[in-house]
Amino acid sequence: MSNTIEKSIEIKASRSRVWKALTDSKEFGIWFGIDIKAPFVVGEVSRGMFTIDGFTHVPWNSTIKAMEEPAYFAYTWHPYAVDPEVDYSGEPETLVEFWLEETSGTTSVKVRETGFDNLPPHRIADALRANTNGWGFQLENIKKYAES
Questions:
Q1: Domain Activator of Hsp90 ATPase homologue 1/2-like C-terminal, which positions (predicted)?
Q2: Which residue in 9, 92, 103, 124 has the fewest CB atoms around it within 10 Å?
């Protein structure tokens, strides 16, 4: 099994529209399912709480690594950090990267998550499984959101 997740989707919207849905923290929160309190700023931690049923106890903590308009956005986070009894802050984070390319009014969005090898061994398989499924779900969410 590869310890990298890569997925992509075609969105019938301009790259500028998809960029805003991806990098405006309020819009990101709507389609991703997070209540985020402050704008994304490179080098700063973004905080909030998930709003997805079954995950409303899960905090959102990610460090924004890059916002290179209009094509590249990246952050790090603790993947599948859903157990409220566990302190994940001492664990390494994975890197989530998005690339946007526009062709004739359609935007291709590619997401890649790396760094699972650095997680504690007992967490790798669960985090990979959960996030592989999760990225498929989230790409469909941004597609529906940006196309509406």
A1: 12-147
A2: 103
Overall number of domains in the chain: 1
Q: Domain containing 68 — which CATH number?
A: 3.30.530.20
pLDDT, position 45:
97
Phi, psi (deg, nearest 5) at residue 99: -125, 135
- Which are the contacts of 125, defined by CB distance < 8 A and separation ≥ 6? 1
Provide φ and ψ at 107, rounded to 5°: -110, 125
Determine the residue type at 37.
K
CA 84 vs CA 38, 55, 71, 80, 128: distances in Å? 23, 10, 35, 11, 19
Q: What is the largest CA-CA distance in the chain?
A: 48
As given in the structure block, the two tokens for residue 116 are: 């699972």
Contact 34, 22 (CB under 8 A): no
Structure tokens at 44: 């700063």
- Opening angle at CA 132, ends 27 and 74, nearest 5: 45
Q: What is the mean pLDDT of residues 11-24?
A: 98
Q: What is the pLDDT of residue 26?
A: 98
Residue 63 near residue 75, CB atoms below 8 Å: yes
Count of Cβ atoms closer than 10 Å to residue 41 Cβ: 11
